[in-house]
């Protein structure tokens, strides 16, 4: 009869815990990944020994002097028993022993997350671009444990429940026979290691969070919804993982004076009635400082002047849009008696005391002139 106790290096009075411990130790040493194919025969002996001694009923039978395996050292287990393959799979996973697929423990290393931060820009900043500092909460590598998650001077330990495999397997019986189900080890979360003394400064997370001030170069031409990507400026990775990206999303504030339409800017200039009639050069305060706007003599309300290249910078292209100045002829409402007298004299000179009611022809009214101005005619 085989001496199963000797196979496991135990004496006859070994406890259940001793048997289990000895078996696991030998199984690890004789694992084909460690011992190579040379360990196979020895492993089969060890597995057979544990098949008997690891089972209370079979052990009792064996201790009474009867080998439950029938004395065949390499037997593959009884018809309703827990066979050699089952035991092997219980500890190492995979389909067939020696050459089966090995499932390794999961890596703790993870890429840091992407972070989105919003910032508002004025229209002027959108026109020219701006350098901006944004405040954002980001994960950093813990400066105490340097991302290891372990308190200084300690190390991760191999998980005792899964022996570092990261997975646990359970035997289920089905019509087709024994089926192994594999699931991540609940004790270590599938990592194969546990952290007995987590770092106190990061609660064992390997990262801490803090407020960062980050400089962003916002190019000309951005608008609400534009996202600027700062590669590698997001959250620190976990356990040495790569950093995530930081995205800065733009919100464009409304301007009181200028309205943006694509790359063009629009504004409305009030032209005094006299200037509209006589013509004038009016200085307009634009984003590019004071600029002259030529009001031609006889300017109608609704006409416009285009200031080329004073619009919004084109995003990722050269050049700028235009500034379109709409002219609004301002009729005075606060005239003095003297001014009223002069206007009456002017009206008399022009024969307009009783103005003729001339209806503008279709296509000639203010609306059409306005439309034509937009078309650039
Ligand atoms: Zn730490
Ligand atoms: Zn585990």
Q: Hetero groups bound?
A: zinc ion
CATH superfamily of the largest domain, by name, is Urease metallochaperone UreE, N-terminal domain
Give the helices and strands as they follow along the chain.
HHHHHHEHEEEEEEEEEEHEEEEHH
Counting structural domains, the number is 4
SS strand fraction: 25-35%
Q: What is the CATH topology of the largest domain?
A: HSP40/DNAj peptide-binding domain
The total of beta strands comes to 15
Q: How far is it from the N-terminal to the C-terminal residue, by CA?
A: 110 Å
Mean pLDDT: 84
How does the helix and strand content classify structurally? alpha+beta
Strand order, largest beta sheet: 10-11-15-14
**Spatial extent as radius of gyration:** 43 Å
Under the CATH scheme, the architecture of the largest domain is Sandwich
Query: Total number of helical segments?
Result: 10
Helix content: 10-25%
CATH class of the largest domain: Mainly Beta
Largest sheet: 4 strands, mixed
Low-pLDDT sequence parts: 71-102
- What coarse outline follows from CA principal-axis ratios? rod-shaped
């Amino acid at each position: 009869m085989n001496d199963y106790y000797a196979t496991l290096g135990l004496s006859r009075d070994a406890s259940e815990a001793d048997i289990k411990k000895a078996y696991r130790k030998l199984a690890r040493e004789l694992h084909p990944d460690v011992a190579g194919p040379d360990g196979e025969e020895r492993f089969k002996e060890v597995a057979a020994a544990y098949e008997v001694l690891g089972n209370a009923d079979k052990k009792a039978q064996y201790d009474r002097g009867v080998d439950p395996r029938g004395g065949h050292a390499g037997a593959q287990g009884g018809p309703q028993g827990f066979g050699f393959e089952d035991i092997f799979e219980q500890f190492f996973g995979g389909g067939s022993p020696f050459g089966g697929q090995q499932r390794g423990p999961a890596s703790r290393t993870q890429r840091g997350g992407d972070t989105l931060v919003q910032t508002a820009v004025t229209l002027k900043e959108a026109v020219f671009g701006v350098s901006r500092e944004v405040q954002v909460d980001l994960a950093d590598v813990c400066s105490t444990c340097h991302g290891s998650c372990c308190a200084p001077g300690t190390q991760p330990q191999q998980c005792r429940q899964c022996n570092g495999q990261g997975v646990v397997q359970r035997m289920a019986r089905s019509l087709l026979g024994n089926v192994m189900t594999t699931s991540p080890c609940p004790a270590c979360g599938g990592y194969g290691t546990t952290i007995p003394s987590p770092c106190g400064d990061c609660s064992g997370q390997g990262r801490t969070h803090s407020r960062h001030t980050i400089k962003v170069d916002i190019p000309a031409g951005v608008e609400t919804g534009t996202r600027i990507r700062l590669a590698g400026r997001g959250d620190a990775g976990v356990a040495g993982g790569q950093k995530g990206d930081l995205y800065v999303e733009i919100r464009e504030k409304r301007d009181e004076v200028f309205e943006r339409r694509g790359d063009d800017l629009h504004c409305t200039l009030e032209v005094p009635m006299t200037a509209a009639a006589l013509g004038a050069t009016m200085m307009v305060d634009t984003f590019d400082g004071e600029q002259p706007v030529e009001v031609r003599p006889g300017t109608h309300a609704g006409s416009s002047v285009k200031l080329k290249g004073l619009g919004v910078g084109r995003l990722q292209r050269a050049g700028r849009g235009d500034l379109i100045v709409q002219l609004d002829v301002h009729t005075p409402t606060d005239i003095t008696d003297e001014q009223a007298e002069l206007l009456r004299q002017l009206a008399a000179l022009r024969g307009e005391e009783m103005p003729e009611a001339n209806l503008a022809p279709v296509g000639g009214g203010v609306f059409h002139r306005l439309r034509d101005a937009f078309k650039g005619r």
